[in-house]
Amino acid sequence: MNMKKNLAVAMIVKNEELNLPKCVESFRKHGLDPDFYLTDTGSTDLTFEVAKNLGCYIVHSKQIPIKRFHEARNESLSNIIGDYKWLMTIDADEELDENLAEEIRNFIENPDSYDNYDAAWIHNTGFKDVCYNSKLQIIKQELFMNGTVKYKYNLHEEFDRNNLDKNRIKDLYGYLWHYSLQERDNHLENEIRKQEWYISIARNFVNEEPENWYPYYILACQMSYYLGILLEHTEYLNKIDKNELIQEIKENFENAFVLAFKTNPEKVEYRFLIRSIVCYKNFLESAEYWRIFFNSYKEY
């Protein structure tokens, strides 16, 4: 590895032989040439061979299978070797576009960035889930000064921002393309199994932190997303008790709100709370439609 580079990218991977080349090349073709450090969580395909052919450094994870994503993400950071100024995390099924690559390049190559900032929020102004053709306005916390950040939360891990000064966080803007399991493998069953696995992790998260509002929010959102997939593919609706799932989603959202408003305001990350309220509003608006929809599919 070239230790003179000022950017290293850490990734958690599993069976990413098809996605990995596209992700890595989305950096290189747009003028970024970081070192890539991959932590493999149990691949059975050619991920290792592909990674090495791409010039990536890859090791086996100590956590197989993943039970806590923040621990796996922190492990991937600990596997980076070298004195890099900036670190970045990304998933193998994501790709940068030219605008976002330019934003990142300008940021890490600007000498003032190292003196004035500890991290950058990547505002994905056109984040697109290619598989489900959905566009979202989201913030990805993926770029930060070496040694400043650890991740938290068992699922949909985020920066632990307790040691970060919000005035030393730079806003970057651009497009990030996301390719889900269904798009990659053309197997809907894989995507459904992944969502069921995520739900099981979120349930454990709730059980481990029953007084924390955030796990309930994560579980409710994950269940909502899972239900949305099944609604698009009605042949799988017999996998669930629809009314029971809707009720559970509602209860988890409500538990999240009750606990959030009991929490010390200084410890509530309001961007998540606002996002939770928006998700709950969308859920309530959809719930009656779902019930009507289900009534029209009595055979399920």
Helix content: 40-55%
User: Mind describing the biggest β-sheet?
Assistant: 9 strands, mixed
Q: What is the number of strand segments?
A: 11
In whole angstroms, the N-to-C terminal distance is 55 Å
Using only C-alpha atoms, the radius of gyration works out to 20 Å
How many helical elements?
A: 10
Mean model confidence by pLDDT: 79
Shape: globular
Structure classification: alpha/beta
Order of SSEs, N→C?
EHEHEHEEHHEEEEEEHHHHH
- In terms of DSSP E residues, the strand content is 15-25%
Are there runs of 5+ residues with pLDDT below 50, and where?
Answer: 126-137, 296-300
Short summary:
The chain has 300 residues and is of the alpha/beta class.
What this model shows, in words?
With 300 residues, the protein is α/β, with parallel strands linked by helices. The protein has helices at 19-28, 47-53, 69-78, 98-109, 111-116, 181-185, 188-208, 213-232, 242-262, 270-295; strands at 7-13, 35-40, 57-60, 86-89, 94-96, 119-129, 134-145, 151-152, 158-159, 169-174, 176-178. The chain has 10 helices and 11 strands. Helix 7 packs antiparallel against helix 8 (213-232) and helix 8 (213-232) runs parallel beside helix 10. The longest helix is centred in the C-terminal third of the chain and has 26 residues, at 270-295. The model is unreliable at 126-137 and 296-300 (pLDDT under 50).
